Amino acid sequence: DTGVSQDPRHKITKRGQNVTFRCDPISEHNRLYWYRQTLGQGPEFLTYFQNEAQLEKSRLLSDRFSAERPKGSFSTLEIQRTEQGDSAMYLCASSLVSGGSATQYFGPGTRLTVL
Amino acid sequence: AQSVTQLGSHVSVSEGALVLLRCNYSSSVPPYLFWYVQYPNQGLQLLLKYTTGATLVKGINGFEAEFKKSETSFHLTKPSAHMSDAAEYFCAVSDPNNAGNMLTFGGGTRLMVKP
After folding, report:
1. Nearest CA to A35 among A17, A57, A54?
2. Distance, CA of A100 to CA of B96 (rounded, Å)
3. How far apart are CA A36 and CA A47, in angstroms?
4. What is the pLDDT of residues A52-95, one digit of tens each?
5. Do residues A48 and A77 lie in contact, with contact meaning Cβ atoms separated by under 8 Å?
6. Closest approach of chain B CAs to the CA of A14, in angstroms?
7. Residue A17, SS3 per DSSP
8. CB B88 within 8 A of CB B9
9. Residues near B25 by Cβ (< 8 Å), separated by ≥ 6?
10. Are B36 and B90 in contact (CB under 8 A)?
11. Do A56 and B101 touch (CB under 8 A)?
12. DSSP H or E segment with residue B113
């Protein structure tokens, strides 16, 4: 069990550029979540997948955001035409759903800075 | 809709003193409850969770929390603070009736431990 990994750990980009983040969940975890955490705040839910299906998206996920989990393993989160307001820590979490409330295990996050 | 309020964005205690971090929630149904800890530049680590059963929950690193339905609270305590406990702590809830189990977080409490 190597834990949830995210790449890159840090990304600095200019306004208007596109960025893509990757998340590798704990192997065999069928649920994958994306959260966003701005400075001094708690994480906020963005979207989640069960296997390869994206089952729910938050209203925070504007049309500029897209997430995929093509083979039910790793996931990518793309932000198009970045804005300064997109600057945040993007956290990925995974869980193994087996009834009841499954624990979500978080990765270290990708810190995005939009200049 | 669910919400979480953490009273006190910053709490300072002396090493060896009692730690008390407050969490109150609002939910239409009894939620699942969680406490996570976040060290600088790291992801979130689960301290403990309450789903059903005994309302006093013991977690890692000597922390415990008690679910009080009448007070809609889930305060986190530790009898004796250690320097290594200095971190950001987040209380979170999820809706047992929502298959997605998305977490709703409070704003966090930064715990500082003085020598």
Report:
1. A57
2. 8
3. 10
4. 999 999 988 899 999 999 988 999 999 999 999 999 999 999 99
5. no
6. 22
7. coil
8. no
9. B2, B3, B4, B5, B31, B33, B72, B73, B74, B91, B93
10. yes
11. no
12. strand B109-114
Residue type, B32: Y
User: Which residues of B are less than 8 Å from A5 in CB distance?
Assistant: none
- 8-state DSSP, B102: -
Residues 6+ apart with CB under 8 A from B63: B19, B35, B47, B48, B76, B77, B78
Q: Which residues of A fall within a CB distance of 8 Å from B102?
A: 33, 45, 48, 56
Number of Cβ atoms within 10 Å of the Cβ of B60: 10
Helix (H, G, I), strand (E, B) or coil at A85: helix
Distance CA B45, CA A10 (A): 20
- pLDDT tens, N- to C-terminus, chain B (115 residues): 889 999 999 999 999 999 999 999 998 888 999 999 999 878 899 999 999 889 999 999 999 999 999 999 999 999 999 999 999 999 999 988 888 889 999 999 999 999 9
Reply yes or no on whether the pLDDT at A1 is more than 60: no
Are B63 and B81 within 8 A, CB to CB?
no
CA pair distance B76, B70, nearest whole angstrom = 17
